[in-house]
Amino acid sequence: MEIKWIEDFIALAQHQSFSRAAELRNVTQSGLSRRIQALEQWIGAELIDRSTYPPTLTPAGRLFLEAAEDIVGKLFDTRAIIRSEQRMPGTGLQIAAGHALSVGFVPDWLQSLQSRFSGLRVRIVPTNVHDSILMLVNGNCELMLAYEHPDLPLHLDATRYPHLTVGRDVFLPVCAPSQRSTPSFRLPGTPGRPLPLIGYSATTYFARCLHLLLHRASKNPALVPHFESDMADVLKKLALNGEGIAWLPRSLIEAELASGTLVAAGDRTWQLDLQLRLYRDRNNDMPLLKDLWEYLESRTEA
Predict the structure, then answer these.
(1) Which residue has the higher pLDDT, 222 or 155?
(2) Residue 9, pLDDT score
(3) In angstroms, rounded to a whole number, what is the distance separating the alpha carbons of residues 18 and 24?
(4) Of 54, 111, 162, 210, which one has the greatest count of Cβ atoms within 10 A?
(5) Span 3-86: which CATH code?
(6) Is 89 a residue whose pLDDT tops 60?
(7) Where exactly are the structural domains of the chain?
(8) Across the strands, what pairs with 144?
(9) Burial class for 229, CB neighbours closer than 10 Å (0-12, 13-18, 19+)
(10) Are 132 and 102 in contact (CB under 8 A)?
C-alpha cells in the first residue's frame, strides 16, 4: 500500500469526480482509477460506489476516510517537524542545485542578493537534476536551480512550478595547454589520432547536452572515451591533469581560463548555450520566498 493511494482516495472523496481528482493529483483518470482499485484490493472491500453519479463512498469507504485523513494529517505534521529540525535555525531558504552550479554560479549569485536581502540564510543542497526535481516536488526545498536547454527541457508543470532565467552559461570543450600555450588537443581530431574524451555518465544532464551538441556538429569528431564521471568537478581536475578534452560550463572554469591552465579545445561551433533556471512551487506561500521571487522577477527575464 502506498501513501499516494490514500491521497488519491481523499481527493476523490472530496470532489466526487474521477476526472477532477485525477487533475488535482496530476495523474490520468485511468491511472487514478487503477490506484483506487489497488487500494480497495489491499483493504479487501469496495470503497467507492460506482453505480451512482457522482460516485459516492460505500460504508467501508466512509469508515476508511476518517482513518485516512487522520493518518495523512499525522504523517505530514510529523514530516514538517522533522524538516524544520533539519533546517538551519531561523528563517531561511533551502536551494537544490546541480553540483557544478553549486560551485560555479551560486556563490556569486547569492552575493548579488545581499544588497536587497542582507543576512539571507541559505542552505545549498548539491545534487543531480533528478533528485533536485524530487526535492522541489516533495517540498524538501524552496527553490531549485538547474541548467536547461530548449531542446532538453525538464518537463515541469509550468502552472505549478514557474521559473525565472537568472543567468546564462556556455558548455564548452577545454583541455590543458601544451608547452607553447596552445591546446594539447584540438577538435575535431582525426581517425588516425582520436582525441581522448573525459565524459559524463550517461544518466547525467550534461551527458545529454554533449550528445545534443555532437549530434548537431557539422563534422564528426574523432573521440575515444578515456575517463567518465557524474561530476563536472572531477572532469575539470582530469582536464587540468592533461588527460584529455572535457566539456565544462564556463562558470565553473572562469579562473582556469583566465590563468591559462585550461584553454578552449575548439571554436564556437563546439559550444552549447545553456540557461540557468530557478524554479519554485507556486503553492509555497513562505513570505521570504515570495519577496525574493518578486525581486528576482523585477530584474530577470522569465
Answers:
(1) 222
(2) 92
(3) 10
(4) 210
(5) 1.10.10.10
(6) no
(7) 3-86, 93-167+275-299, 169-274
(8) 96, 279
(9) middle
(10) no
Whole-prediction pTM: 0.70
CATH class entry, domain 93-167+275-299: alpha beta
CATH class of residue range 169-274 = alpha beta
| 54 or 89, greater pLDDT | 54
Of 235 and 80, more confident:
235
Residue 295 grid cell: 525581486
List, in sequence order, every beta strand (DSSP E) within the chain: 48-49, 56-57, 93-97, 122-126, 143-148, 163-175, 195-200, 223-229, 245-249, 263-264, 272-280
Nearest to 210 by CA among 128, 272, 274, 130: 272
- Average pLDDT, integer, range 261-266: 96
| Three-state secondary structure call for residue 248 | strand
Residue 81 CB coordination number (10 Å):
10
DSSP run (H or E) holding 289: helix 287-299
Single-letter amino acid code for the residue at 165: T
67, 264 Cβ separation under 8 angstroms:
no
